[in-house]
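Progress note, sequence design subtask.
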């Protein structure tokens, strides 16, 4: 199936149009579109504009609040609880990270749990938000069960992603954004859309056996076995239990029950380097680390050593200039009046 190449700003307009038609406030729709296109620009199409149709379905069936009234309650000098009022998770996450950054500017560290939220998209967006304020950023979120625990046959935790962002002086920030499953389920969805097979270590069928057919995938595997499983539990504790939200099997499913509010929790941390060391020195040392890694001898088959997030940043530069590839079916949906 051929892709359609669309300019990033046009893609945002198409998403905003779809979301506002479904009743979402235009300012919120603009943020959602920005987060989705951010993912597509970086080549993470699993979290890109293909998700628009799902969000429209949830909005129209009552599973998300199209006009949320956000509130933040500071619970200590460096901590807060951000209530998303069942709005779009992308907007909740952006506002909650903004609040964490504000706390960190004032008190050195900002830790914020977000409650009453929904799917928030690529976490790289929110840690980049912190890095652009010269803060170290951390973001994580639980998701509904889709990953088998190490040694288990049925799913318990979600893909439970975690992301870090580290600013530098002249280099782009280091962005590490990863699911605790071997891949995000969105990549399986993208393979279904594109009609392509998947690697055998991505997912298992209803019998718990590995499959290369994305249509047969019933659950995913944790990355690195017990390590990914352990990290998934950590993410669920910090973004779920700590936020007073549900965990694992008790989380409302993303697909199905479209009229139910999902009540997801997220966790955001912003660290102001200036409270630990000289900020300019920290940023310069980040540059030195990145530059030294770039000068490291590459292994056979590699042209250079890159830092986390760099391949995505290179793709973003190219796509900002040349346009974003979108599958024909997704483009047809977005363009439909």
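Output:
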């Amino acid at each position: 199936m051929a892709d359609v190449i669309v300019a990033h700003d046009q893609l945002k307009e198409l998403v905003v149009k779809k979301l506002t038609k479904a009743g979402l406030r235009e300012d919120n729709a603009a943020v959602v579109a920005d987060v989705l296109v951010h993912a597509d620009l970086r080549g993470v199409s699993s979290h890109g504009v293909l998700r628009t149709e799902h969000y429209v379905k949830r909005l129209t069936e009552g599973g998300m609040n199209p006009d949320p009234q956000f509130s933040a309650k500071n619970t200590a000098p460096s901590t807060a609880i951000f209530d998303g009022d069942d709005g779009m998770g992308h907007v909740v996450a952006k506002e909650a990270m903004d609040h964490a950054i504000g706390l960190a500017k004032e008190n050195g560290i900002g830790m914020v749990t977000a409650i009453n939220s929904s799917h928030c998209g690529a976490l790289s967006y929110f840690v980049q938000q912190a890095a652009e304020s010269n803060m170290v950023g951390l973001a994580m979120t639980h998701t509904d069960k889709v990953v088998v625990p190490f040694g288990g046959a049925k799913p318990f935790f979600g893909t439970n992603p975690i992301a870090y962002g580290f600013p530098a002086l002249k280099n782009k920030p280091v962005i590490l954004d990863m699911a605790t499953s071997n891949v995000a389920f969105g990549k399986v969805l993208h393979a279904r859309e594109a009609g392509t097979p998947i690697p055998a270590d991505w997912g298992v069928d209803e019998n718990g056996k590995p499959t290369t057919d994305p249509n047969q995938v019933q659950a995913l595997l944790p990355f690195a076995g017990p390590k990914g499983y352990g990290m998934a539990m950590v993410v669920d504790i910090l973004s779920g239990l700590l936020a007073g939200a549900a965990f694992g099997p008790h989380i409302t499913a993303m697909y199905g029950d479209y009229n139910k509010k999902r009540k997801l929790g997220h966790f955001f941390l912003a660290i102001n380097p200036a409270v630990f060391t000289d900020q300019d020195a920290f940023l310069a040392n980040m540059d030195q680390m990145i530059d030294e890694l770039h000068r490291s001898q590459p292994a056979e088959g590699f042209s250079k050593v890159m830092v986390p997030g760099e391949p995505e940043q290179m793709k973003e530069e190219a796509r900002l200039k040349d346009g974003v590839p979108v599958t024909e079916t997704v483009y047809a949906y977005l363009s439909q009046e």
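The chain has ten helices and twelve strands. Work on this subtask will continue into the next period as scheduled.
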